[in-house]
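Hi all, long-time lurker, first post. I run a small reading group and we've been trying to get comfortable going from sequence to structure in the token notation. Rather than ask abstract questions, I figured I'd post a concrete chain and ask someone more experienced to write out its structure so we can walk through it together at our next meeting. Sequence below, copied exactly:
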Amino acid sequence: MNPLLSRLQPYPFERLRKLFADVTPNPALRPISLGIGEPKHEAPEFLKQTFVDALETGLSNYPPTAGTPEFRAACAGWMQRRYGVTLDAATQILPVNGTREALFAFAQTVIDPTRQGATVVMPNPFYQIYEGAAMLGGAEPYYVASDPARNFAADWASVPEDVWARTQLLYVCSPGNPAGAVMPLDEWKTLFELSDRHGFVIASDECYSEIYFRDEPPLGGLEAATKLGRGDFRRMLMFTSLSKRSNVPGLRSGFVAGDAALVKSFLLYRTYHGGAMSAVVQAASIAAWGDEDHVVDNRRQYREKFAQVTPVLAEVLDVALPDAAFYLWAGVPASFANAVPGLSADEAFARELLAQYNVTVLPGSYLARETGGVNPGTGRVRMALVAETAECLEAAQRIHAFLSRRA
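-- Answer (accepted) --
Happy to help. Here is the structure in token form:
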């Protein structure tokens, strides 16, 4: 077996199952889960119909790994409309089967494990795929702690110069998971300058870009590059998908875009890896990228939901409306620290909440790694407001009752 597999840590939801193994949820209340970030809004009818129609001919041929010209053109058109970014659809766009598999596979394309000190930098807390990709690529992950003073955005200034010097790949997530922070232009400028100085590649995970609460949509990585005169998008790829934007996580459809040289290398890797997207999925995806009405309605639903849920929770938790994404990153009361021997405050909170009110949340410490004796997720929980508004509001009211009675 590949010895690097032994370095992988259990996935957060595996740890959650273990944490709850001996917990009996209150049987008087129906279960409500805010634990998994899986969109629950209804998939658009036109998209489902396009998928069905494409079955007539879409299963008869092997799909090209590079995607059809029509698919790439649809993605390029969306990038132009959404970000004002001009791309060569033939050389700067590549279909992927969701951002998860692409973010992992890209590291295998970029990392050179024969170079001493191969390092992959990532935010902390983070999406665990970044860590696994780094380790299985033969590199060491370097975790950049979040800054509570800046809505838990990654503190890039804390990374020592010698770490940047051996970095081969940087994962950026904006809007972020779990806190929803959006990177401003000056941070992008700093990262681009570091990339120029040290030669590392930037992978920009932007899968939450279309769920936001400000008037202005989140700044994208390629958009930032364009604004800063980097129209060749050197040493950078952005990753996006339809899962959150169009409520179709089961479609497994996304694309990467950016530096043509990186796209060419990634295409070579994917040709051997077997990363082609089904023609049926491509047909449905073309329809989805070409329509914004369903995206606007989806965003409206999230805005209304967060507007109702956040004030209820803010009365009993340290929580505020994020910049974007569909999570609340909430601090639990100090009374949960040392409440259960051997458990962190966020673990104790999650166990007790499930037992008494049958609501599932994800301990924040499961989304981060301890560095310098500190886990930046400890004492916080992530709540995914993905279900319908009424269910999320009921969960918030249960949490309010739970903490009010415990006080």
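A couple of things your group might point at:
The longest helix spans residues 293-314.
Residues 312 and 396 are 6 Å apart (CA to CA).
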